[in-house]
Design a protein that fits this description.
205 residues, mainly alpha, 10 helices, 67% helix, 0% strand, elongated, disordered N terminus
Amino acid sequence: MGRPRTNDDAVRDRLVACATEMFATRPQESVTVRALAAAAGTSTAAVYTLFQGKDGLIREVRDQAVAGLFQDLTAVPGSDTALEDLYALAVAYRRWGREHRHLYAVLFGGAQSFVPSSRVGDRDPVRPLVAAIDRAVADDVLAGDTTLIAVSLWVALHGLVTLELAGALEGDAAETAFRSTVDAVLRGWATPAALPGLRRTGMAS
């Protein structure tokens, strides 16, 4: 009879969950392999066997965050207009950040942060946003470089979500800030003909 498998999927999942929380709430250099193993109720050997060390575990946490955000954004149904799609994607981004605060902190504010760039991969979380912006530019709703528009909208969304997660924006103030900030960013890139429609468009949280 073979030896029982101790470094199984359950151990892997515990390590990823513990690492997600620890990397989101502590300085990266203070999180040791020993601390990760102890939090997950396993041995340091498991970290090396399953992830080849701390860096591999960090990559796994980041990859899961990227995949989760990508899945939620690609699940947003398309609408009749690119503008409505952009509002819906903004809402979905905010919702994912609030529902996955530890993953969000690791992805955008912690270990191996994800940085949107002009090179968008097939499973890049910003791909749905870039596609909606491309459509808006083609429809003469927005005017400008797609990458610059995407980065400006992401910067606004990231700032809003980060403030919410820190408790600096709550309740009605958070809702008002979210709606008005996204509106302001899109108006800044809008063509003159599209401005009336932008002002009429609302967002559901």
